[in-house]
Amino acid sequence: MFEAIKKKFSAEGNEPTGSTSKPDISREKSAELFEKAKTLFPGGVNSPVRAFKSVYGTPLFIKKGDGCHLWDADDNEFIDFCCSWGPLILGHNNNKVREKVIEIMQNGMSFGAPTALENELAELILKNNKYIEKIRFVSSGTEAVMSAIRLARGNTKRDKILKFEGCYHGHTDSLLVKAGSGLVTFGETSSAGVPKAFADETIVVALNDKEAVTKAFEDFKDQIAAIIIEPVPANNGLLLQEKDFLQFLREICTQNGTLLIFDEVISGFRIGFEGAAGHYQIKPDIITYGKIIGGGLPVGAYGASAQIMSNISPEGAVYQAGTLSGNPVAMAAGIAQLTELLRIGFYKDLNNKTEEFTTAIQRFATARNYKFKVFTIGSIFWFAFTDQETIHRADEIDAGSMEKFKKMHRELLNRGIYFGPSGYEVGFISAAHTKIDLEKAKRAIFESLEVVFSGK
To answer: Which candidate in 72, 131, 160, 168 is catalytic?
Structure first.
């Protein structure tokens, strides 16, 4: 009888394992590549978070991905929960995506002219997303957001934008701003090289603060072109918002002739085919999407009603262009990937898999009274070293807790589990994660948490 109970608790992750810290994996080749990279690129990387500044060791240089697995230059193998920062919802090197891309590449890789593939992918999206009527493809999520902001300003003939502290919208100048002191403030530049004049057109308030948003409209009456928000803020932790707050934004925008922009570069096609708009059943005026619509290749898009989109050149006066917009290789990858996402039961299976995984981890931590919380929506999750039941705002995150994540990240790498190299980054489950993969990852997470909280 006792053995049966013991086995049950062990299966649920409730039996202590007495885990100790594991030796660091070899990074010799990655370290050599990084030293060379530092002579070629600023900081040795082409995107700052890759520098591993927030975690231990040098960056891992990846040479191969397949399914939910990655291999680095030292031939270490990992179960990947970064998924190229989210878009690889089918996993790495998916057969159908790869075969479609190879088929199209036989005919050329870039034309700077229209192709039928653009029509096919756009129709696939628009026929299955009731929140937009027309779409424009661009080359990245940042470009999509930049274009959406310009469209909002052109449509409303207003200049000011309201954004939220804790939401990231790419590296466009007018949105690389942070909050100043006070309830409602103009943004302060968060990057050198951003003119103060740009920041002065951006109002920054705290998430989940109706009073601040209301005051902003009082202080800047008839001046705000758009509110932009990640409806699922997932670039600074997973700061889940109540539907009531998002609905409030919809209503106050409508009342003031302001456009509501949902930045769905992460949540779009990830928590459902219609993204957060569909999840919350709230219709924004403009929606932006990222590289998930191109199977992880460099692509983005923004969409809105036919009326709003009619403002874009060559039909309207808002200029936006790009030689690689609608690139045939990216379109091919997108067609293959999104076709799979439309398969009956795809999201139900993926989200159920994620719920089972995250529930088991939370149960393990709760049984040990660890100050640890798993936040999740759809197939997105975030580990926070906190005892708070909800975290809606960036200032509610304990910066000191990132030291615990730093230790956990090292322990996970040493156990063959790959997460983004920052405690503020979220994790993703893909269709390629099997039960065996997830069971192995759970055990590694359990052991890593024991090391973190035991101080070993």
So the answer is: 168
**C-alpha dihedral over 343, 347, 349, 350, to 10 degrees?**
120
Alpha-carbon distance 418 to 409, whole Å?
8
CA 291 to chain centre: 10
Instruction: Indicate the average pLDDT of the chain.
Output: 92
Q: Which of 292, 264, 276 is nearest to 83 (CA)?
A: 292
User: Is 440 a catalytic site residue?
Assistant: no
* Upstream peptide bond of 314 is cis (omega within 30 degrees of 0): yes
User: pLDDT for 17-66, tens place per residue?
Assistant: 567 889 999 999 999 999 999 999 999 999 988 999 999 999 999 999 99
DSSP string, 141-170: HHHHHHHHHHHHHHHHT--EEEEEET----
Dump pLDDT digits (tens) for 100-131. Answer: 999 999 999 999 999 999 999 999 999 999 99
CATH code for residues 2-80+345-454: 3.90.1150.10
Question: What gap in Å lies between CA 255 and CA 289, rounded to an integer?
Answer: 26
For strands 300-304 and 134-138, give the pairing: antiparallel
Q: How many CB atoms lie within 10 A of CB 11?
A: 11
Do 2-80+345-454 and 96-341 share a fold?
no
Token pair belonging to 444: 């590694």
Catalytic residue (one of 263, 347, 353, 437): 263
Using the Cα atoms of residue 223, residue 226, residue 230 and residue 235 in order, give the sign of their dihedral.
negative
Predicted TM-score of the model (pTM): 0.93
Note whether 250 and 260 are within 8 A (CB).
yes
Domain ranges for the chain: 2-80+345-454, 96-341
The label of the residue with tokens 């503020």 reads 424
Q: Decide if 100 is catalytic.
A: no
Cβ 132 vs Cβ 195: under 8 Å: no
24 assigned to active site: no
Residue type, 224: I
Residues, the chain: 456
Residue among 160, 291, 373, 442 flagged as catalytic: 291
User: Does CATH number 3.20.20.100 belong to domain 96-341?
Assistant: no
